[in-house]
Batch of 2 targets.
Target 1
Amino acid sequence: MPAAALTPELELVVARAAAAAPAFAATSPTERGRAIVAVADALEGAKASLVEIAARETGLTEARLTGEVTRTAVQLRLFADTLVHGGYLDARIDPADDDFALGVRPDVRRVLIPVGPVINFSASNFPFAFSVLGGDSASILAAGCPLIVKAHSGHPELSDATAEVAATALRAAGMPEGVFQLIHGREAGVAVLQDPRVRAGAFTGSISVGRLLADLAANRPAPIPFFGELGSVNPVFLTAAAIAERAAEIASGYVTSVSGSAGQLCTKPGFAFVPEDSELPAAIAAAAVDLAEHRLLDPRISRSFDERRQAILSAPGVRPIVEGGIRFDDAGHGWATPTIVAVSLEDFRTSREALVEEAFGPLSIVVETPDGTDLAALVPEFFEGNLTGTLHVSEAEGAGSTANAPALRALVEALSQQVGRVLFNGWSTGVAVTPAQQHGGPWPATTNDTSTSVGTAAITRFLRPVAYQNAPAAFLPLALQDANPLGVPQAIAPAGESRSWGSAATA
């Protein structure tokens, strides 16, 4: 597909980003870190006004949105400290070696550098944490890449207000003009994604739109990396011993996880596999009494959820545990209460096509499995890639001392092949913002299962490696100089060590 022509306004946006790229890449990690902290401070300073706009545009609660602003600010500060530490640069130094095992070795030094301008397509369900200043934006700016954000149509006023906060803070911190810009409209986003001056893309949203954008990025004359977080049903597996030990606690956590933010979370548990004749369905019904209705994000999502819910309830063998429902107001917004249904494993297999796809909203399916079911085999049978997989086990099972320990280990291994994060005795909603976090998984959870959109490893998506051979010190990046003025970690392979390669493995 030929690239769409840029309008004069978009041409200015992309030109500014391209012009800013060299200067922004040349800023020191400390300078960028301070600028990012300034953005975090400004965001929290504007919290009250931004939350008011967000609540009106998205229907999410003030408490949820206030917490999300805090999470977004913490995320920004995490990347600021990541910059100062410098480990993200992956600096490697192989000094010249006349006694190298394969002949004379030149001086070779490798480091990661910014890829250049990046476009980030915002999410609807996290108007702060995965939107204008969310994790993708934070990692793009931290990497030293000019950022063009395509605002989500579900919260345009909030996007403009947040962008103004960010742009003002970055300008005051002395960052080059053009490092942060906002655009509106899907066509505008597609046109910018296809422009040759844009070097990478990021997206959080539906599988269909994510696939379209990923294909556009891959089919450019010069393809670019595209990091999309798309869809996930996050299966949960519960043992009979875990249910016997704490059925009420598990049921309460499950209902909270399914219903929180009206189920509009990419980590919502979409399926729970439980032993048949378990007491858990009754505990779930008891835990779901008197749940308040919650507005869905927009009319389109509301209609889609209503259709998906009806399709699931109509599938053979499906019976409601929690009936739930959805009503539409005069503006077309849907107000939902959670629906949780049960189905036998046999009927789940029969109705797989109608049941297995994600229901974006407060709905989850309990699958009842006969005694002796090979749970590990169910993972590849029913599911493609997912962001998470969860196990609930008893205290004794957690110690690995029960008769079913081999089967549980097999289940853990099966999940690790299909998901990016394996949880025990918890719930997948509420992603911890921490350096080791992995928020990604095999297709269709993400378009690139080696990357993450949460945690400090997210920065590497927007960097690329360059090696310098026999470069005079004056021409080396600071991170690769022997003096190491940045004080970053350097992996050095000393001269002479190649003669002993292999000894560690055979010791």
Target 2
Amino acid sequence: MADDFLIFRPDDVDLARSPLRRGIAEPTYVLGAFNPGMARLPNGNLLLMVRIAEALAQPVVDGHVRAIRWTPGGYVLDRYPLAGVDMTDPRQFALKGHAHRMLALTSLSWLLPVELTPDGERIVAVHYDKAIEPAAPYQDYGVEDARISRIADRWYMTTCSVSAERHCTTLHVSDNGIDYWLEGIVLDHQNKDMILFEGLVGDRFMALTRPLGEVYFAYPEDSPYVGGPAINFAASPDALHWKPLEAPGIRARKGSTSAMKIGGGTQPVLTDDGWLTIYHGVERRETVGIYRSFWALLDRDDPTRILRLEDDAPLIEAAPALTADIAHQMYLPTPVVFSTGLADGGDHYLVASGEADLACRMTRLRKDRFR
């Protein structure tokens, strides 16, 4: 039984069943099938909610680069003069000549439910009929990076919704773990990694958040921390209305390989020792950076109390050997692993990750690794 393997890849997606077929007749391809939220279903099987980044096979035509956009009437293509954009980052392009940094995406993302056996080793079904696609103007450039938490008898799934209107966190809810309805926006602009704790804390829902901004302020010179994107906490009476907590959360520390920025990864799960969560840290390198997974343990009654923080040695790193047979599909210049789901496997945990922004990776970690 392998402890690290790819379970879902770009070539596993049947694009004939993509929601983009409603409007986009031109050839597309799967840029990535990655960053899966994960949950245990009532039948014992695992569910991966896989982000499918679908891109045009020929994005540049007649001196223009094209982007896919959802509308209530179907999907359309927008055109931008090639001379007016910067295409350095393969995931997006920047429009020149604007007062603010202005981006468009080279792909549009939708979510595909993939059901696995209880051990996560084999695909049982791919539920195209239950795919989640943009459904509102605040999602017209896609729905990204699901995180799923089961709380009592409901499954709560946060997603990042992208549009020209706003870059926000949205909430989907399910009574069976596989059929979700959209509740709407729960956090506003650029709060990219909101993840609900898998259980109430007292009588409140709690979540990790990661707000982004255009400017960050410096810590004092003798502080162990580095300013920049970091993990905060928020609480809610109903999972819809959230109040940020005043206590600082998980900060990037000087000397760590995660010092560029950090953010939430898997849903926090309750253990005998406290709330366990796996988060991501980024080391500055080229355009994208190197993404690795680290872990933290939070107090069960007051999760703002960080009991243990392991940010020296990575818990999970990118594994080029896993993607060797699909290396021709790689497009990122640096190693990336992005952990997005955690499930109990008995004496071990199963961790679902996006590998290289390309495929879904499963990793088995013994529970005593976190003692």
